[in-house]
Design brief:
The complex is a heterodimer of chains A (394) and B (380). Chain A is an alpha/beta fold. In chain A, 43% of the residues lie in helices and 16% in strands. Chain A has 2 domains: 145 residues, Alpha-Beta Complex (Aspartate Aminotransferase, domain 1); 234 residues, Aspartate Aminotransferase, domain 2. In chain A, helix 2 packs antiparallel against helix 11 and helix 12 packs parallel to helix 14. The termini of chain A are far apart. In chain B, the strands form 4 sheets. A 7-stranded mixed beta sheet of chain B has the order 10-9-8-11-13-15-16, sandwiched between helices. In chain B, strands 3-2-1-4-5 form a 5-stranded parallel beta sheet, with helices on both faces. A two-stranded antiparallel sheet of chain B has the order 6-7. The longest helix of chain B is centred in the middle third of the chain and has 17 residues. Classes of the chains: A alpha/beta (394), B alpha/beta (380).
Amino acid sequence: MKRDPCGFLKAEYQELVDKSFNWQLRTLEGPSAPRAKVEGRKVIVLCSNNYLNLSNHPKLKEAAKKAVDSHGAGSGSVRAIAGNMDLHLQLEKKIAEFKHREAALYYQTGFAANAGLLPQLVGEGDAVLTDELNHGSIIDGLRLTKAKRAIYPHNDLAGLESALKQADAEKARRIMIVSDGVFSMDGDLARAPDICRLAEDFGAMTYFDDAHGEGVLGGGRGIGTHFNVEGKIHVEMGTFSKAFGVVGGLIAGSQGLVNFAYNKSRTWLLSGSAPPATAAACMAALDVLEKEPEHVKRLWENTAYFKKEMQGMGFDCGHSETPITPVMLGESALAKKMSERMFQEGVFALPIVFPMVAKDKARIRTIMNAGLTKDDLNEALRAFEKVGKELKAI
Amino acid sequence: MVEKENGKRIVALVVNPIAGMGGKVALKGTDGVAEEAVKRGATPIAHSKALHFLSKLKELGILDRFEWRTAAGEMGEGALRECGAISTVSYSPQKRQTTSEDTQNASKSFLSGGCALVIFVGGDGTARDVHSAVNNKVPILGIPSGVKMHSGVFAVSPEAAAELMADWLGGKAGAQEGELIDLDEELYRKGEWKVMNFGLALTLFEPSYVQLGKEMYEAASHEDVLDGIADHVIEALAKTPDALVIMGPGSTVEFIGKKMGFEKTLLGVDCALGRKLVAKDADEKTILSLLGKHPKAKVIVSPIGSQGFIFGRGNLQLSSAVMRLIDLQDIIIVATPAKLASTPDIRVDFDDQEVVDKFNRKKYIPIVAGYHSSVMRKIG
């Protein structure tokens, strides 16, 4: 038999298309902004993670430009060989200060942080307990470990406790609890204080992925500050690609954690370090957050207004506690249709459908932006009302 | 809706007195082998299931909200009388030993007298009999009491059936179609699993949710997943090499058994000691006697169907008497992530409340879903 080396590419892609599981990419023609040009149309963007609109902040853009002039376009190597720049170290010092922690480490992406560090923190003879709705980068990171994995029901403390007891009874050498800080589909929060208390009882390590919490919760410092458990979280993991408006992953904690992490994370060790412009822009983002608290304030004001008005019209906005506001629609077809019509009306918001969420829980997931004005919000709300009535969603 | 002027709804109850009797004696069904089951020491369970259902209706204060039609004696009249409900008998069986024709004829008599719902106590076979007579003219609702209950017309338990009736009265539950599934019992007893779909039957709908989570990102093939589960179980069993290993029915457990080198039956309960199979397709008595000699034991089971039963469906040999001798720590529950995706909760069904409570107290139980990977699930 003669092999067809790449035949599967077409076949498997077609399979995705047949099930409508394939991604259809929309193209931004210009910056990621609260009002952006998407495929020739000026739209209000309600689906970017650029919560604070920092990607367009003059201080970030200026810092990036300056770093290009002073340090060039690329870093030349991995950090471990010849790509470790003063800018990287300055950024890490700044992260640690901002997070009120001893030390921090900057990764190329948030995914690289989870995929690189998680499998090193636990191994043979250990147990790792993970929330069933944790992000895919956690799932993949944990797939690389030899530790026993126990998946506990979402935010279910009794379920977590029984998993802890089980690990304890099996005499696990180390136990680690991993949870998202903010769960990205529903916008609800991890019960961090209870998780930390349980962890303390069992001598377990805690690892929070605060990708959607940093720049949003606790005045921008994240879930630890929000719940006042800063010192109790052993590994605070986050990203610069969302509210901070740039790109890159981070971890913050003890100096011991950081020493361990950069010596053992293969993603960190084996891929080129971030370009100077990126590191400088990240630093500027932290600076802006410290000096200009109005961005976070406006994000929450916008969120409160949008949620109240949406609920007033009769939309079901789930049980979100953050600027992620799901508009629950039920049927996948309705969510897709609604998203399409909203785009025609000038609002860009993506549908989240089966199998990413349960069959009867399809929704449009909106993400608020601090850069949207009252007029922008009113325009978006009018579009939701019009299309919602047209499709009998309200 | 058949409703009387006094606001009562007319409903019918038919009990298949021999349903479920084959289970504990490893007969995998009672169709055509009722006498054999009795010979093997089987005792009736359908009557007590009917009583559980009626008592729950009473407790909910709605037993009197219905006007009852039923069949004589053990086919329903007795249970209704015991619970103090007044009923009209519209059918009497000719012989003491009832047959599937009796179930069909009783159901036909209910329909011609007019009724809004036919409730039956039995298994998949009974469901087919009732459906063939009622033929979707009114919804039917099963109270689980058989050996196999794969059809979508069964409530989760007698108590849940009563609660569903309350929702129905309150307008919260309506009729919808459920699949009628049965195995060919002849083949089933020989160890072959031929599932047949007998069409759709109208039943009362209990809303249930399918939570899929992140399964779409799972890249492993079904075979790889099973392999991982088997490796995990084999590793766990190696810690107690002298324990009696009791393996329940189903394809996941069969896969594990085969990987351990046993000719595991697909539908039976098999027992192994050391690396040797000591009982194939064992009945309750055999299992109890093995446990008497080897009290240290491990039980491997998998949830049956989407209702999530790990005991009390398809493995009645693993009875409450057996489970009294087993420590919960020694039960290994296995299921593929795909199966778990459509199985929100894990349930048990025993005739002994103390054994049920033993599980309920546990509240959460780990399900092995891959190598070194378990999922904590609510139980009860």
